[in-house]
Write a structure and sequence with these properties.
The chain has about 375 residues and is α/β, with parallel strands linked by helices. The chain has twelve helices and 14 strands. The protein has an eight-stranded mixed beta sheet with strand order 3-4-2-1-5-6-7-8, sandwiched between helices. A six-stranded parallel beta sheet has the order 11-10-9-12-13-14, with helices on both faces. The longest helix has 15 residues.
């Protein structure tokens, strides 16, 4: 099979996120049997074309124009090539592949759609652009198969008018050989936040909840790992709450090995996102034997086992979030039991096994 993949960026782009790493983990497992061409925008010093991981990467244009330049790049390549299947990834706004590809079968990958959540991140003008860009999806991609990563996204697509029979679910895997319980837990209560520092992720609510935690456990610490344009505002909030360098530290981006060490040291991971496709950081934490406390939000609720490997609380309830964190921090037996349950569950989510499911989905579409 010759597979062409349209996505906003590739996993080596500085803005790469969960959707890119999800597809990369599966594509590298298929590359020895299939010819894969990955089309995305170009970052800084990235070459326009590169062979890596058994995949051919094609790049053009800056990040903010990707929904225009990536289809143009694909069409230029398409004049001399014909893939067996085009997989369009809708991770920002659609490329609307059916408008320019009428001969090759098209499948659609949707981690999650923003919907009204986009207005929590950006200004009304840009938010309206993204929101409106999602409206034609049920009509434009009618009769096309959809690949999703969670029950939450499947339900969202069904509510938008996509027939359930067109939707195929393959969840993200976990590198259970790298993400393992190991080393020693922190000697003092340690809460970790891990992810991009974006406004819509509502990390401000995690900081407010942690302030309540410190009132009962003044020795508790919180480490914020990740970077993003909301970092300055979060640091100002931490200062205002009296937490900056007095319980809360911002580490920025860290290498994977260091990230794993923090997950192994943490007493719990906190996740305050209002919507995700899945929440890969949750399963990575559970692979390290670390419970998760999060809001009961689409995608997030799919990536933990409520009451068994962590707690879900009503979205936006800061007091309930703090109380759930304290239950785990103050109860070592509960913490240990949840850690073991989370590890046992994610061991079933192995990339290699799940790759066979994704490959079967793709091959079933090829004529």
């Amino acid at each position: 099979m010759k597979l062409a993949l349209l996505i906003w960026q590739d996993p080596y782009h500085r803005y790469a996120g969960g959707a890119e790493f999800y597809l990369w983990e599966y594509m590298v497992r298929l590359a020895d049997r299939h010819e894969i061409h990955w089309f995305g925008c170009r970052d800084r010093d990235q070459p326009a074309q590169e062979r890596r991981d058994g995949i051919t990467y094609h790049r053009r244009g800056p990040w903010h124009l990707a929904n225009f330049t990536v289809p143009t790049l694909y069409r230029a390549w398409r004049r001399n090539h014909r893939p067996d299947l085009l997989l369009e990834s809708i991770t920002k706004v659609p490329f609307y592949a059916p408008l320019f590809e009428r001969e090759v079968p098209i499948a659609v990958f949707v981690p999650h759609l923003f919907g009204a959540t986009v207005f929590q991140e950006t200004n009304p003008l840009l938010g309206s652009y993204v929101w409106l860009s999602e409206r034609p999806i049920p009509w434009l991609y009618r009769n096309r198969p959809f690949l999703v990563i969670s029950e939450s996204t499947r339900e969202d697509l069904i509510q938008r008018g996509i027939p359930e029979s067109q939707i195929f679910l393959v969840p993200p895997g976990v590198a259970v050989d790298r993400y393992t319980p190991g080393g020693h837990r922190s000697s003092t209560p340690l809460v970790v936040y891990l992810g991009r520092l974006k406004r819509y992720k509502r990390i401000d609510l995690a900081l407010q909840a942690f302030r309540l935690v410190r009132e009962r456990k003044p020795d508790a610490e919180m480490v914020v790992i990740g970077d993003g344009d909301y970092a300055p505002a979060l640091k100002r909030l931490a200062e205002k709450l009296g937490l900056m360098n007095r319980g809360v530290r911002f580490l920025g981006l860290v290498p994977e090995k260091e990230k794993i060490r923090w997950l192994q040291k943490a007493w719990l991971l906190v996740n305050t996102s209002p919507k995700e496709g899945w929440g890969m950081v949750n399963t990575e934490a559970q692979a390290c034997g670390t419970p998760v406390v999060a809001f009961d939000a689409p995608g997030i609720r799919d990536s933990i086992r409520p009451g068994k490997s962590g707690f879900l609380v009503t979205y936006g309830d800061v007091a309930a979030l703090a109380e759930a964190m304290l239950r785990i921090l103050e109860n070592p037996e509960l913490r240990d039991r949840m850690g073991k349950a989370g590890r046992a569950w994610v061991e079933t989510l192995h990339w290699d096994r799940l790759a066979r499911d994704l490959e079967a989905f793709l091959l079933n579409i090829v004529p």
